[in-house]
Every structure is written in C-alpha cells, then in structure tokens.
Amino acid sequence: MANQPVDELFDPLLNLEESFYKEGYKQGYDDGLIQGEIEGRRFGLENAYQRFRDVGVISGRCLLWRTLLSSSTANSDAVPAKAEKQLAKLESLLAQVPMENSEGDDFDTLWLKIKNKVKVVSALVGEGGRGLVGVDGEEDADGEIESGERDLKRKIAAAQEEGGLDF
Predict the structure, then answer these.
(1) Which residue, 5, 44, 98, 111, has most beta carbons within 10 Å?
(2) C-alpha to C-alpha distance for 104 and 134, rounded to whole angstroms
(3) How confident is the model at residue 127 (pLDDT cuts 50, 70, 90)?
(4) Model-level pTM?
C-alpha cells in the first residue's frame, strides 16, 4: 500500500457519489421492472372493468328494450319498427366489441357509436334520449345509477304487472 500513489488511494472516495448513484439506479431499475408490471396489470384490470361494466349495462338495457318492444306488440297493433331496427343495429355494435386486447382494435370509435345508438334507441322507446344516464359511472347520492335506472325499474315493474316480461 505504501507503493501506491496518493491519487489511487483517494479514487474510491472521490468516486463514491457516482458508485452510489449507479448502485441506486440499478436497484431502482430492478424494482421498477417488477412494480411496473404489477401496476400495469392493475391499471388494465380497472380500465377493463369500467369499460365492460358499461357494455354490460347497455346489453341489459337492450334485453329490456327488446322485451318491452315485444310486449308492446301484444298490447298494440303499431310496433315501432324504427325502434326495432335501431335496437338491432345497437345489438350488432355490441357484438363487435373486442373481448381481447389487440393494437388493431379501435375501441373508442366503436364505443362512441354505441353510446350514440343508445341515445337513439332510448329516445325511440320513450325514455326521452336519457339512455346514457348512469353509463360511465355517474351515480347519485343513493349509490344507484341516476334517473335512467329508476325509470327502467319503473318500466320493468309496470311490464311485470301486465305479465309481459319473461326473462
């Protein structure tokens, strides 16, 4: 040790900050690889849940509207043909929703078409175009999806009293 120049003795001390920086960067990078994958999966699950919950709500409304339109056939001679046609288009759009994650799918464009079609169908079946109230997670103080769901519940109850709902 006595033969080493003074500069070589102090090199490890002079490079101490850089060595700690490199060690910390490597540890952070390794932890980031693990945590990044976990956070990515969690984010993906949350987004998928939100998207497909809304798809499920609209699918349920389609079933209800289909039943209401078929029960109105039994009650009256005039079947809203335009509502039937628009409902069929909405159901075909819902069938196009991709169930796997691939880069070629343009979910946002399809979702916009679905939301617009829901507005049209809800207006035609007598909900006044409020078919989207409650979709995208809008909830009131009761924790219940806003007035759109309450209106649907009222219609279901009225149709059940008439004996028109057979799910």
Answers:
(1) 111
(2) 29
(3) confident
(4) 0.58
